[in-house]
Every structure is written in C-alpha cells, then in structure tokens.
Amino acid sequence: MQHVAELVAIGPRPGDSPAAQRAAAYIEQALATAGLHVEREPVGKVLVPGIELGGLLYRAAREVTTTDPNLVVRFGPQTGAALLVMAHYDTVPPSPGAADNAAAVGVLIELARVLAASPPHTPVILAFTANEEIGLVGCGGARRASQDRRRVRDSRWISSAAPARCRSTARAS
Ligand SMILES: [Zn+2]
Hints:
The termini are far apart. By secondary structure, the chain is an alpha/beta fold. The chain has a single domain (about 1-165), classed as Zn peptidases (Aminopeptidase, 3-Layer(aba) Sandwich). It contains five helices and seven strands, in the order H-H-E-E-E-E-E-H-E-H-E-H. The strands form two sheets. A five-stranded mixed β-sheet has the order 1-4-6-5-7, sandwiched between helices. It has a two-stranded antiparallel sheet with strand order 2-3. Helix 1 packs across helix 3. The longest helix has 20 residues, at about 100-115. It has helices spanning about 1-10, 20-35, 100-115, 135-150, 165, and strands at about 40-50, 50-55, 55-60, 60-75, 80-90, 125-130, 150-155.
C-alpha cells in the first residue's frame, strides 16, 4: 500500500511528463533500496495499431515516440526461456491512477523483493513499462526487446484492465 500512496501522491502521471519521470525515479529508488540492479531500456518509436469499431475507423495506426524508459529487473539464470511480467507506471491525464496502475506497480516492486530474496530457477523478467495509456507503447517496447532476444516463454500483464495485446502469450521461436 505504501507504494500506491507514494505514486498517487505524485498525482496524474501521463507519459512523457515530469510526473511520469518522478514515478520512474520512485520505482528505481524502491528497487535500489532492495539492492536490485535496474536497467533503463529506452522505448523509442513504437507503432500503435489503429482501432476499428463496427467497421468504422476509431483511431488510425500511428507511430509514437516516447522518451520514458521501461525499467527492467532480471532474476534467475541468464539463459533459457523467460517469464516476462509487466505493469505500467503512467496514468491517463486526469487520474491519480491508484487502481490503474499504481496497485500493480506496487505488486511488481514487492515481487521483485521476493525474487531477490529467493531467486527463481528459471529466468524471470519484471518490466515497469512506460506510456501505456496512449496505446500500450511501453509494453510493445518491452515485448519487442525481449522477443529480439528470443527468450520470452510467456508474458503476463498485471492491471485492473488487462489489455489483450499485452496480456497475450509471447512465444519464443
Ligand atoms: Zn492502464
């Protein structure tokens, strides 16, 4: 609950805002306090797919560039098929984002502490992803980066409203 309170106290944390940067800094600090090494993975440019509703184009596909990084912590062996678990740290502009998605970020921070204390036998990657609310930008970046390494066996997204594109299983080929 402490993590949720701290993140909510920052206020709304839309992607690429000073508030989102403060949220990222809070997560890094919490993980560093637990003695964990956090990687800042740049997300950069991501293609956000269009949305069609009942045959009408609701939103066209577009390319989005984000300066917010994904924050990644790795556990277990360096090789082998990995489980990727993600939670996003941004919010929609007017919302303090307690349930969406500070609660999941808090769970992921605590999961990191547990995994640090008892490392898993198979690789686990935790990703605090950037800029999801405008179209799952960070999760696209995290999955793309992980798939490039051909390592992800399965991916899980923790959120009050799990988006299908990020929730679906990513298979290593
Ligand atoms: Zn969300």
